[in-house]
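Bumping with the actual sequence this time:
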Amino acid sequence: MANVESVSVIPKPPFASDVTLERELREFENLKPRLKEVWHAISLRDNEPHTSVVVPSLTLDQSELKKLDGASFYEERLLFLLIRLRNPRARVVFVTSQPVHPLILEYYFQLLVGIPGSHARSRLTLLCAYDASPKSLTEKILERPRLIERIRMGIQDPSRAYLTVFNSTPHERKLAVLLGIPLNGVDPELQYLGTKSGSRKAFREAGVSLPLGMEDLRSPEEVEDCLLDMKKQKPGLRKAVVKLNDSFSGEGNAIFRYPESNSPVAIHDAMRKLEFAVDWETYEDFFDKYSRMGGIVEEFLEGENKMSPSCQLRVDPHGETVPISTHDQVLGGASGQVFLGCLFPAADEYRLAIQEAGLKIGKVMAKKGVISRFAIDFLVVEDPKTKLSEIHALEINLRMGGTTHPFLALQFITGGQLDAKTALFVSPRGRPKFYRATDNLKSEKYKGLLPEDLIDILTHNGLHYTHNSESGVLFHLIGALSQYGKLGMTAIGNSREEVETIYNRTLQILDRETQYGR
């Protein structure tokens, strides 16, 4: 009698109209264990067949997203997840709000070393909602049952599939249930841990230093009381930062400057002079959002030499906390707190120290049930007297962030890996790799440039990444270029000095090639 291989039968996912919240939560829990079964494939440890469904939705506060030019094109940042197609048995279903230009896809395919572009292309299902509205991509998908069905059709084997998202909310949870595949992201029930308030509580539990402050505030009156209390504890305090719980890129922060008098009336009057991260923010709008999402107040840490590094980690389905990377953040804007880009890896002086602090915090997150990729922002301040650096944890970003896609790009292009002992990324040739990345190359002169124009500029000026030298430039946000004059870039090299040379040369070439633009 012939042997019959047992096949697990996966129940067909329900229609959206059939799903009550109680059923959604129950089925979401039932899907979680299946993430363990495909984890080695997710972490690029094997070439087993699997399907990665990528929904790069920025399911964030819409009033905060309005501060981000070309926000809908930020979905393109996760095109670096096409790295999955390096596995010849893997499939990717990638969904966007608006169509991705064919030339942009070709740009990524030609970077996949060792895999013919046609072979990779045949294993990619690219779908689009054809919806440019400001709603999140996940909401758009949930409104389109036939699009959900098309996503299902792209999943070859639901038992070997998972959903990858930018951030997790109840919308992403519902989509995972409707697709019948586990969510490769944090359970939305644990979202609070990634807020500014939740972060501060996790830092205390992990025994990691954090600035003086208070969390779980909801009103201007509570903020004023906190500011008064902080001044009593630290009479020399000159500034504080008021932060929205769920803001991102530093654009939900406001600077408070203490008046000469520490009276409640003086504090109340000074509150009207808050310095917001963006010019069009108003006091009324800021505290309307503050009352809805909550927030914190914490001291503004002073120092002549201040650095803003971050540490990226992942808690896997087995509960293991794994370091991914460290970065120095490049900050700017009116408040000096807006994320503009990053340098990889973080500086030698504190790279291992923030990785160690990050692992302590990661263990707290794992204990609370987090299974996700996340980042922790720190502030390193040099004491002017002792010249020693003090490290303070600032916030947890319980989602992908501005450092995720450049690191994916480095993995995508080199096939290397992080050495946790040194916190350096090493290519297969044994070379430590460095990069500088930004989402904010922006100029009026860039407006009107088509993807074809950018590719011409790259080709004519030899800006492409080359595998022989293991250095060069990768671009993203290409879809935002024509309308917004905005582009993302990752300059990769074999030393910090080489990266700066490549980065600056690229800026010079773009300026020269567009000098007769607008």
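The tokens above came from a reply further down the thread. The mean pLDDT is 89.
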